[in-house]
Amino acid sequence: MENVPTTPIKRVRKAKEMYSPSPDKLKKSSHPKPPQKSQKNLKPLAQTPRRNAPKPHDNQSFMESLRDTDGHIYPSTEHFMEKFSQGEHLLKNSEIKVKFWKSGHEFMAGVGKFDGVHLVDTKDGLGMMVPDDLDSFDAVKKYITTTAKLPVIVSGTRTEEKMTITKLIKAFNTPKQRRTAIYNLLSLEFDSLGQGLRDAFSVPEFVHRKSMINKLKDKLSQKIQEIQTEMENGDEKEELKSKLQTQIDTLPKYQMFLLLSMEGSFTDIHVDFSATSVYYHVIKGRKVFYVAKPTEENLRIYAEYEKTPLKEREEWIGETMTAEWQRLEIKEGQTAMIPSGFVHFVFTPEDSIVIGGNYLVEEYLEQQFELTVVEEECVKINTIQRGHMLEGFWDVMFSYTLNILIPELESGEPRLIEMGRIMQKYLKEGQNLQKKWFNGDEKKEILKKLGELVLAEPTAKRARMD
Ligand SMILES: O=C(O)CCC(=O)C(=O)O
Ligand SMILES: [Fe+2]
């Protein structure tokens, strides 16, 4: 296929899935461990051993039960998974009230400030188009025709296997007792595949409306139209149009992922890249999220953890944050809407097909910047790979400032002053732009204009005088 990216993985999840004890720690443990290397010649997965230990009755005994023989907790090992499924129902945090809506209509009418987790029972009224016949693993083949080898996470190991969608679906069609691995495909972004599912699917209206990238796309298209009608023909006009078109053509694409997860998959604790907000629609099967609020403390714990090299991670922050987790079960047909920064981990109790995606929003601008900065520090120290970040985040922020924020501030829109200040705080002339949408002089010019407008605001003046 022509438009198939050779490396479609873009998300921050790979390492999370693969957290497992270091080899020395493994030696001390008597528990059978999942396969560590090649998946070839594997025996079928052992049936989970049943022990007679009583089921945990509170969070503390639950966390205790997860410990391996050396006293550590190793998420996604066989021992962990067995104990986890026995006690996971205990994870409750009464401070997180998941808002339940019977339909998309009700959600759209009642969502208000997007500051909590929402669960929408049926997709009617969400304005999300999902093909009706995408109802089985075989049906996926009809919509995803790429022959590229996709990176698939092998749950419970440090490995990732590259395989075609055909091979993966064959594995899903293998009876559970004959499966040799638990596969979890999280990185198939299908908007960039350019056909198939992309044409049969549309993101929820709420996502479309809130997404800064979508707003930017509309604005860039509108600008091209304006230039077309208002400017005299000539080189300058063509150059301007082509610059804008390049931005449209290279906008980051993170809104449409197809996730295929086998029963038993476990995705460890993370915040989605750049603290993007998430929609997550379960087409088939069932998923369980455990979510914690983006409080200052939780985000601090998470950032520290991310900055610690894998081998030095002594504690599982799932335990450190025991009381913070709220269980959120997403059943077939339901859609979860999770705002920026919620820390989460995910367990898949049944083979599942999900469509979900990530988007940047204005309300959480500062948090999005903050997490992106943390991720960049992590890239430097090698605990996160650059490819797992939101590529083009800074280009988008510069372009948003130039094309949306500045014109609105110029027309005296005081609501935006706070946003202007945040942009001013984080955007720097020397910022490296992965998509190279602006050169040094252009960045400088944008920041100069922004600075003048932010300072010119009466509220800003008052604040300075206080
Ligand atoms: O479904 C999963 O296993 C992981 C989902 C998730 O949190 C993500 O894709 O970011
Ligand atoms: Fe996630």
The mean pLDDT is: 88
What is the CATH top level name of the largest domain?
A: Mainly Beta
Order of helices and strands: HHHHEHEHEEHEHHHHEEEHHEEEHHHHH
User: Superfamily at the CATH H level of the largest domain?
Assistant: Cupin
The SS-based structural class is: alpha+beta
Approximately how much helix is present in the residues?
Answer: 25-40%
Sheet of most strands: 11 strands, mixed
CA-to-CA gap between the ends? 61 Å
* Ligands, ions, cofactors: 2-oxoglutaric acid, fe (ii) ion
Uncertain segments are 1-41, 46-50, 460-466
β-sheet strand percentage: 15-25%
H/I helix tally: 18
CATH architecture of the largest domain: Sandwich
Overall structural domain count: 2
Rg, Å, rounded: 23 Å
Write down how many β-strands occur, each being a DSSP E stretch of 2 or more residues.
11
- Based on CA inertia axes, which overall geometry fits? globular
- CATH structural fold name of the largest domain: Jelly Rolls
Characterise this structure.
With 466 residues, the protein is α+β, with helices and mostly antiparallel strands. It contains 18 helices and eleven strands. Strands 1, 2, 3, 4, 5, 6, 7, 8, 9, 10 and 11 form an eleven-stranded mixed sheet that branches. The chain is globular, with a radius of gyration of 23 Å. The chain has helices spanning 14-17, 23-28, 59-66, 78-87, 104-110, 137-143, 165-172, 197-200, 205-210, 212-230, 235-249, 296-307, 317-320, 365-380, 393-410, 417-426, 440-456, 458-465; strands at residues 99-103, 118-122, 150-154, 160-163, 183-189, 257-261, 266-270, 277-292, 326-331, 335-338, 343-359. Bound molecules: 2-oxoglutaric acid and fe (ii) ion (FE2). Residues 226-376 form the JmjC domain. Residues 1-62 are annotated as: Disordered. GO terms for molecular function: metal ion binding; oxidoreductase activity.
